Amino acid sequence: MNSSAAMETEDKVMMDHDAMISAHCRAIDVSGIRRVFELGAKLSDPINLSIGQPDFPVPDEIKEATIEAIRADRNGYTLTQGAPELLSAASAHLAEDVGWETPSDDLGLLVASGTSGALLLAFSALVNPGDEVILPDPFFVVYPAIGRITGAKLVYCDIYPDFRMTAERVEPLITERTKILVVNSPGNPSGVVLTNAELRELAELCERKGVILVSDEIYDAFTYSESRENGKCPSPARFTRQMILIRGMGKTYGCTGWRMAYAAGPKVIMQQMQKLQQYTFVCAPSMAQVGLAAAFGLDVSGHVDAYQRKRDMVVEAFEGVTDLVFPGGAFYAFPEIPSSLGLTPGQFAERAIERNVLTIPGNAFSAKDTHLRISYAVPDEKLRAGLDVLRDLFINPG
Ligand SMILES: Cc1ncc(COP(=O)(O)O)c(C=O)c1O
């Protein structure tokens, strides 16, 4: 070692990078899902029922419009709130679907980098350290993570065994410090769809208590025939404007990687979310915004009907072998792993992996360890083969 290198070493502080990680980052636990990914990575061609994205391609019209946007040099920053053509398409869609005029005197509209991006902006705009945020349990994994990042106190609403987040279950959890109630219907991981009547009660409760309802409706298009009301996905937006409505485009149009969503809600809050977006994400991806402006006019009912048939295959496969709450939407099912099987959901998932099938143990989405999440967004033959393995495991856990 020459003398100048030695000098450098003496001047440097040995950094313990792990000790430098922030407490809120450290508090985010990814172990449940990571374990499945690690085990699954060892399989060459698994039947993957763990994936949370559709298996159909982006419709050609959207692909072409997006490629055309790149060719037309729509590659720079857009306005922070979104490209004008997507904003006006989303606005027309919301007017038709839930009767909201956006933008208007009281409501704002923002295009965001995915539903997760919109959720982060909403929490960042509203949560002071220690403010309480009520989340369903089981939950989509991003909710607690974003809650921790923004310093929220997480309050879980136990929605077992039927996975319905009702006003009756939520009301006792509301305190002076409650800022946000997160509602997710159709829900991940259960697939349960709340009714307009249930959502109306939640909306009224939030208005009465001064709580902002954040409605994650990323699976709105995947609301199956028996759960639709007047042909539409039930939404609290039909009953209140004191809420943030978030709808993603990634699942509906098979473009999860494009990171696209839109959010609407009280103008003052949306302005703050826009300000935060300006200094963080800056804008959602420009070419995807332009390409997706045409999306609302496309008919995706063929895919939705196909997924409803897959859902029926799942319900049928578990009939008589375990309890499954009927999933009226999304593309997940959350069957119970009965204690009489003598296996934890994690052990059940490991047995399934031994037979080439990937699922996710329910404790990745919950404080409870009693269920298993299955995604049925896979081709029919794969789903059939995977369901045969799972059904067999319920009958002969080995
Ligand atoms: C309920 C729910 N919300 C949000 C997201 C994230 O959506 P995005 O990819 O638009 O961030 C997902 C993805 O699985 C989800 O299941």
Structural key phrases:
398 residues, alpha/beta, Aspartate Aminotransferase, domain 1, Aspartate Aminotransferase, domain 2, 2 domains, seven-stranded mixed β-sheet, three-stranded antiparallel β-sheet, 15 helices, binds pyridoxal-5'-phosphate
List the helices and strands and how they pair.
Layout: H1 3-11, H2 17-20, H3 23-26, H4 31-40, E1 47-48, H5 60-71, H6 84-98, E2 107-112, H7 114-126, E3 132-137, H8 142-149, E4 153-158, H9 167-170, E5 178-184, H10 196-209, E6 212-216, E7 243-248, E8 261-266, H11 267-278, H12 286-292, H13 301-318, E9 332-333, H14 345-354, E10 357-358, E11 360-361, E12 372-375, H15 380-395
Helix pairs in contact: 5-12, 7-8, 7-11, 13-15
The protein binds pyridoxal-5'-phosphate.
Please provide a written account of the structure.
This protein is of the alpha/beta class and 398 residues long. The chain has two domains: 11-57 and 300-395, Aspartate Aminotransferase, domain 1; 60-297, Aspartate Aminotransferase, domain 2, CATH 3.40.640.10. 39% of the residues lie in helices and 14% in strands. It has helices at 3-11, 17-20, 23-26, 31-40, 60-71, 84-98, 114-126, 142-149, 167-170, 196-209, 267-278, 286-292, 301-318, 345-354, 380-395; strands at 47-48, 107-112, 132-137, 153-158, 178-184, 212-216, 243-248, 261-266, 332-333, 357-358, 360-361, 372-375. Helix 7 (114-126) runs parallel beside helix 8. Pyridoxal-5'-phosphate binds at residues 52, 114-116, 140, 142, 184, 188, 216, 218, 248, 250, 256, 261.
